Amino acid sequence: MTGAPVKVEREGHLTIITIDRPEARNALDAEAQRLMAAVMDDFSRDDEQWVAIVTATGDKAFCAGHDLRQQAETGDLFTPESGFGGLTARANLDKPVIAGVNGPAFGGGFEMVLAADIVVAADSAFFALPEPLVGLAALAGGIQRLPRLIGTIRANGILLTGRRVPALEALQLGLVNEIVPPGEVLAAARAWADRILACSPMSIRATKQAIRLSDGKDCLAAMREEWAWPAMVAMLESQDAQEGPLAFTQKRKPAWKGC
């Protein structure tokens, strides 16, 4: 996608998605939103793509949310059906998404981070949901996800003020898995991807689906039900479920098929 506001690279089973609008602090206009949604659709459907990294160009911002300049000029606040960046409302994606936060993430950018499974951030990054400061609200999942992740009282201190949360505080709050120097974000995200790719993709999808479907359920009830959930059934019936124990007994790395 040369010249497009979103770049895509595929390296084996890894998809790297880069928002490339540094002149707009990587804010998403309508074109970028549509492209992000299409890229995430492709990743979701492609059985050979097992993990995705979402990052951005430069060190000025990961994503500044909606392109407010476009909104002011055209009134266009377009968001795909699959959510901001094609991610925040994509409820049934059972493949892992890693956010490589190379700079500040605010508004929809922060909401994309909240929708990710693993988060690596530059130590210079910060996170904010400043929508109330411009007459809006965090409507791409921030209102729902942030309280569930860190508790209502602490979330209120962010949602109701628009204040900035530095990377170290985000790590302490459990919003970030790892913080690294700015130039090392993508390398760190790749390292997380490599750890995931060392596992069977069938197991990873079953685990992520079970986490999602267990949310809000009684623990014992979820443990009983999980045996019938689609990704769990697929895992138990897969070639990978045979390959893993065989590779262990033969003292070699498994050759995962993803089926």
Automatic annotation (TrEMBL):
GO terms for biological process: fatty acid beta-oxidation. Gene3D superfamilies: 2-enoyl-CoA Hydratase, Chain A, domain 1, Lyase 2-enoyl-coa Hydratase, Chain A, domain 2. GO terms for molecular function: enoyl-CoA hydratase activity. Signal peptide: none annotated. Coiled coil: none annotated. Its EC number is 4.2.1.17. The keyword Lipid metabolism applies. InterPro entries: ClpP/crotonase-like_dom_sf (IPR029045), Enoyl-CoA_hyd/isom_CS (IPR018376), Enoyl-CoA_hydra/iso (IPR001753), Enoyl-CoA_hydra_C (IPR014748). Keywords: Lipid metabolism, Lyase. Pfam families: ECH_1. PROSITE patterns: ENOYL_COA_HYDRATASE (PS00166). Belongs to the enoyl-CoA hydratase/isomerase family. PANTHER family: (7AS)-7A-METHYL-1,5-DIOXO-2,3,5,6,7,7A-HEXAHYDRO-1H-INDENE-CARBOXYL-COA HYDROLASE (PTHR11941:SF169), ENOYL-COA HYDRATASE-RELATED (PTHR11941). This is Enoyl-CoA hydratase. It comes from Novosphingobium malaysiense.
